[in-house]
């Protein structure tokens, strides 16, 4: 449980307050309900690029970071497929500075030529550093592109290709700002050594005058059910083959999501998982393998990913994987394994709650899903799901016609 | 009344920052235990930190401690590898091992609820591991593959070559593990290391919701461990002029740069001034290097300078992955920034920003109770205690622009700097 209180300003800004007086620090976390799912073909990567622009200047603040550092604070942000999340950590006595900074970049961001052009270069270097100049670094470009035909999840958050980043226009950036960076599209969590009444006063003072959004968001194309297995061979100068096999699965708040989460917990998480024990420790094809879900708001992917021992092919690895998956689909999950998963979920909650910032982010994330209490409720529902429901969903999701496979092949230099 | 947004709110810089000292106990076998209780957090982290055996290990056996540590979970006299995996996963506990150049660590991360169940089995990893051949063969093939993948990464390769240049390729800290080194490891090497060198002068660092019950269990299960005594030689390093090392990679899309040198021990009177110099140059987002190379020129996604911690003398390194066409320009700019800090006093405004940033960062770091023990550990291993941080805080509050000029001129000499470029 994470304690919180909440209120909403007239302009639609939702504010949650998590008081923790064991610290002298405050965290201000603002989540904007925009991610790469809100992008369109040809302008991919815009949500993440825009995150960079938010650290430029505003009408009243020449350098965002410096103004914060001057009062002992620091900040960062991340963008994913669904959200863009900004966070500030600072001495609690200086809480008001965070309100000044965050409200001014929500209201008066200065989209200067200099910031736009420099951050374009920075993001292109980030694209190279993280996705192109790394062995296997572009694998999710291939997977997403293969698995999705219509939905924007078909490209990673960094963008589909560098060309798109080169081509953003000032108008794209401005339209993006006025569509998505509005108070009624944001959730602010204020946490740490703070008091509800003071947060109310500061929220009114700094955020109340910011107008709500007036530009409607574009409709996001729905992915149609997949009817046939899709495969793609990628040849690259890497030391060994890799196999990525993904299946479409329900979105975060849909029926079957938690069962899918449990399937990968049991089959592919940790040293005692089925895949690790059968395919890595007692097999000769896989050097490593894991399974996990992309926990996205819209229907996501269940991912099986592994690297092959040298000289073993991704194709033979897929056969070995399929056998284990097939056996799982007709198995019964023992009470011991269900108890193990329950213990892990419980411990994970303990580990996650250590950091104040994590608690603030969790509250913002679950509030964006519609209910901050769901952070706790989800755990309680998940740990009560019986074996037959998990196996039922395994049979629904883990079908060949629902699969997309990347054979990432090692070629000689 | 309209809000005047051009006016920044008033602010205060916190004065009283409390730095707790850990509690010290001595176990029956003489092992010192340091702990900081965090009653509000139900997790427990227990780390056994020992010295790495370097003196009697030949270069081709450099992966001995790595494999010894990683094989301890692969079977004991009472449980085989898969039983151990089931056991620790069932209790949502993790055993983390790290084989470093100076220290080895074996850590147990668990919850208060399961601590009494897992501590006896954790002990058995240290006393009755069996090192089965089949599991060793798998671990070796995984490690060899990992080495070949890591070598492909320009950033990893640049860091390896930097280490080699800095410490020397014959020194244990400067060696780069190759696939052939994996091949040369045999089961007997691990058995011998386990017997004679696993627990050289160990100390225990503990944090979490720990009280008398857990402490008694630790005394029972870890207070009876047999300890190895051995002393590695104290290494000293000197800076010497070295030619720029450039490894060409035609296919690489970026160049990874590493520039740095040996510094001084944490106990040296100039140390805090060096930390501040490093912060201003490249140690935070408002640093000169970030502002110049990233925020002004856009040649990189990130450029940082950092101080590497060793028991004896620390070292310093600047790191960046940059646009290939601008590698020489970036290096020139780096030297320009170093030189500027050596010759032109930092302005009053910048001084205020960096001081306040460092104090705020300090407050933030020390307000996370679970991390405190690691802050203690890093100075304790250099023979110091929490007073180090008190002194540092005093220094940050009081230093002046001249202090930065002085350490710059004394320690950041162009001839001393090692340069490595890969890509």
TrEMBL record, chain A:
State whether keyword 4Fe-4S applies.
no
Any idea which UniProt keywords this protein has? Hydrolase, Metalloprotease, Protease, Zinc
Calcium: present as a keyword of the record? no
Residues forming the Peptidase M16 N-terminal domain are 15-129
Q: Which domain of life is it from?
A: Bacteria
Please cite one Gene Ontology biological process associated with this protein. Answer: proteolysis
Pfam families membership: Peptidase_M16, Peptidase_M16_C
Domain Peptidase M16 C-terminal: start-end pairs: 170-344
User: Which molecular function GO terms apply here?
Assistant: metal ion binding; metallopeptidase activity
Q: Which family does it belong to?
A: Belongs to the peptidase M16 family.
Q: What is this protein called?
A: Predicted Zn-dependent peptidase
Can you name the source organism?
Belliella pelovolcani
UniProtKB/TrEMBL annotation, chain B:
SUPFAM superfamilies per the UniProt record, alphabetical: LuxS/MPP-like metallohydrolase (SSF63411)
Q: Name one Pfam family in it.
A: Peptidase_M16_C
Which organism was this protein described from? Answer: Belliella pelovolcani
Q: Which protein, by its recorded name, is this? A: Predicted Zn-dependent peptidase
Which PANTHER family does UniProt cross-reference here? METALLOPROTEASE (PTHR11851), PROCESSING PROTEASE (PTHR11851:SF224)
Q: Which domain of life is it from?
A: Bacteria
Q: Name one GO molecular function term.
A: metal ion binding
What residue stretches are annotated with the Peptidase M16 C-terminal domain? Answer: 184-356
